[in-house]
Amino acid sequence: MLDSGSDDGLAEDFEAAADRPAGRPRTTDAERETTRQIRGSSLLLIGRTLSLGVNFLTQVLIVRYLTKDDYGAFAYGLSIVALGQMVITLGLDRGISRFLSIYDETEDHDRLLGTLVGVSAIIFILGTILVVGFYLLQATVAGSLGTSPAALQLLLILILLAPVQAFDALLTGLLTVFASPRSIFFRKYILAPALRLLVVILLIVAKTGVWFLAIGYVAAGIVGIGLQVVILWQVLKRRGTLDRLRKARLRIPARAILVFTIPLVTTDIVYAFMNTSDAILLEHFKGLDAVASWRVVQPAAGLNLVVMQSFALLFTPAASRLFARKDRAGVGDLYWRTAIWMAVISFPLFAVTFSLADVVTTTLYGHRYADSAIYMALLSLGYYFSTALGFNGLTMRIFGAGKFVVVVNLLSAVVNIVLNLLLIPPFGALGAAVGTTLTLIAFNVFKQLGLRYGTGISVFEGAHLRVYAIIAVTTGLLAIVGALIRPPLLIQLGLAGVASVVVFVLNRRSLRLADTWPELARMPIVRWFL
Question: Percentages helix, strand, coil for the chain, rounded to the nearest 5?
């Protein structure tokens, strides 16, 4: 049954859970959650790094095999799929880990079952409506979006990916709560990219076209979901959760889910405008060639989000459990320690994609995409800025500061729309890059202010200002050397490597490596370094 309750917000919904006594001192719980989150996220980062290597190889093979128009149509279709996935999930794929962490800890199996059933039903219903509606109204969709006939036909296949990827994201959220990081490591970072690479290899060997690629992507997604269900079923059975859920009464915490979901939807709208609207406007004003030039460098620039995306999977359950215990200081420490780790670990990727954008672009994608180098540099700056400031928006949502999140998201969406309409028609892909970068910076500045007023966590932790100052100075020096001297590739790579080591060494105390990896402290040389 639906459980609307008398909740005024998400924080009140978990008030009872927060009042229960903890078995250990609060600070010990906070430190343990933080350490567990960072250690587990580090394993996922390794997996994501392996996945990125395979995904990069996959994309390079696709770009070099397909014609520029075919790749533009394929990239355009994936942009629409991303928008469809956002509509289907409504942010529930990420919010579910927040709810299930609390209900599992408090042994509220009625609401735990209700959350699982309710969220799965919503995604299934909306996914069915999206796919069926798209096929029935394809002419209207094509006319309103200005889609070319070739891109539309390909989109009719790729649109099936929207509900497939929505369920995949939902199942990943379940694994973050109930399974070990190793299970996520295998399913998300080994199996999924391997299946897509296999599709591309078959594409090239069989000398088929972009239609085969689209069908293969959909089939790989379905196979991945099936295997993920098997893994999750085994985990729940081993934990005894399945037996407890069979005895539970269905109580769907509808109001609590709705209060939490609305800010997530507005956040997704911002990212949809920054990714999907750019592709749509570019295709409308400049054609598929401009879409290809813009989209081709996004995966490389997106490397700056790799660490953040890896840490996000376990951050929500950890922060949610601390919030349920009313340990606001523990959440603040978790937030800033995670942010510093992400800023330092991501710096080598930023140094390469920002200062070596010209070389990286032409090496990976060929000289026909040489003009895309400036787009990579700009996007890298915006993405790294987001990573370095940590999970500001996610932390606000965990605290139930929904109003702040909605205001920040809507304001950022307006900024992005205005910039796109002003910059894309005259400047094309360059306008999209500039608009997206400025929006990312403004978006995170807004969220940082919201973090202060919505949660009480400081805009910048004074103890960590030194970390950001070192990163800023090092980045500036790399940019100056690259612009004025233009050294050869190997020297540039060497300088980026040296700069990364300097950033790590100067900030090793802020990382608290010995606390996070105590086993390293038992090694003589490593102990001296720590």
Answer: 85, 0, 15
Give the up-direction half-sphere exposure of residue 474: CA atoms within 13 A in the CB hemisphere.
26
- Nearest by Cα to 442 from 358, 525, 385, 518: 385
Note whether 199 and 220 are within 8 A (CB): yes
> How far is the CA of 301 from the CAs of 43, 365, 377, 383, 410, in angstroms?
22, 14, 7, 7, 25
Residue 479: which of 345, 299, 352 has the closest Cα? Answer: 352
Residue showing tokens 């790989």: 220
Tell me whether residue 229 is in a domain.
yes
What is the total count of domains within the chain? 1
**What pLDDT digit, counting tens, does each position of 148-202 carry?**
677 777 888 888 999 998 888 888 888 877 767 777 787 788 888 889 899 999 9
Q: Which two tokens stand for residue 12?
A: 């009140």
Q: Which residues contact 359 (CB under 8 A, 6 or more apart)?
A: 489, 492
User: Tokens representing 491?
Assistant: 């020297």
d(CA 494, CA 499): 9
- Please work out, in degrees rounded to the nearest 5, the angle formed at the alpha carbon of residue 507 by the alpha carbons of 504 and 513: 85
- What pLDDT, in 10s, does the model give residues 11-42? 444 333 334 333 334 445 666 667 777 877 77
94 in any annotated domain: yes
Q: What is the pLDDT of residues 359-395, one digit of tens each?
A: 888 887 878 888 888 999 999 999 999 999 988 888 8
Tokens of 392: 């500001």
Residue 2 DSSP one-character state = B
Among the listed residues 312, 26, 70, the one whose alpha carbon sits nearest the alpha carbon of residue 203? 70
Q: How many CB atoms lie within 10 A of CB 189?
A: 23
- Compute CA 515 distance to the chain's CA centroid, rounded to the nearest angstrom: 27
pTM listed for this prediction: 0.68
Range of the domain at 201: 66-252
Asked if residue 133 is part of any domain, the answer here is yes
